[in-house]
Design brief:
Elements (H helix, E strand, L loop, with lengths): L22 H13 L10 E5 L41 H9 L20 E3 L21 H19 L1 H9 L2 E5 L2 H8 L6 H5 L2 H21 L5 E4 L8 H6 L8 H25 L4 E4 L1 H10 L14 E2 L14 E2 L16 H13 L5 E2 L3 H10 L1
Parallel strand pairs: 1-2, 1-3, 3-4, 4-5
Antiparallel strand pairs: 5-8, 6-7
Length: about 375
Amino acid sequence: MCPAASTASPSTSSTSTMKPTPPLFLSLLVFLALGNLPLPSESRAFFVFGDSLVDSGNNNYLTTTARADSPPYGIDYPTHRPTGRFSNGLNMPDLISELLGAEPTLPYLSPELHGERLLVGANFASAGIGILNDTGLQFLNTIRIHKQLEYLEQYKQRVTSLIGPDRTERLVNGALVLITLGGNDFVNNYYLFPFSPRSREFSLPDFVDFIISEYKKILARLYVLGARRVLVTGTGPLGCVPAELARRSRTNGCDPELQRAGNLFNPRLWQTLKNLNAEIGTDVFVAANAFKMHMDFITNSRAYGFITSKIACCGQGPHNGIGFCTRASNLCPNRNAYAFWDAFHPSERANRIIVNHFMTGSAEYMNPMNLSTILAMDESE
């Protein structure tokens, strides 16, 4: 499903002496006005691809079980209503937009994304998806990553009709891009069942090799489509989320097998980004070490102001890590005190810590540069 760009109906005057403006003339005025729209400069365009960590509501428009469209999701969002974000409030893309001084990017499937709002960018992410097309099949209808890239092509066509092909290419080339993939390929594919089809087909190291090779194709396609500043997050510490503590941990500690998956995947991803940059001849892809960003407050939660990183704010069962966050779930009174909002996803406050690392983090968090360095470099050009 894709929203059509809406067109505003011309208002009519009640003065009898006024002649109606010909529709063709109005259309020309609208085209000329949009053609002169300024491209984002200080508030550059922002595109988001990936899974539930960055989905801002696309799945609300799909028939899928991977949805965050009912309370208490959104309890701390400005409207205090669920938005499709898997968060108590703002998610990573919102907070990055905040730092860029821009309004949040709308979900691509939102009917509100048209006209001048297209120039802000778009969020193409969809909860439940992964690098592989067979990841998250249990969620039924989601926007797989290759479809997200098709939507970027469609987006470019829509913007070209507003500002022309040259300015559209400059907008996309100058945009910031965030992509978050990989976690679901483990928790919702390889480790989904005791003996999933993929775990029968591959040993864990071979599976990592396979998904890295597929991810490289995705990133290369992003570059071909015009992306020039791409933040790529690795997987977080999958064995430490409340869901996996509830399902797999016997010691109340992080599950070693899922931690091993992240420890195999992330270094391979970082090397792939370096190789791609070397092939291109410039630093297009920037590695965001989500694993370390999370582990900092998981291993020393009180130093970051959290009372726990082992129990989700919203949920049920051990660690509040069983099932979905619903109205019937346990709900903590102070979301700022919990590192995890639900069984898998960080709280808004944890997301703020992560995004601050994006902006100012040292090389162990952001490599080869952080976001503030990117912005300074681009400003000087």
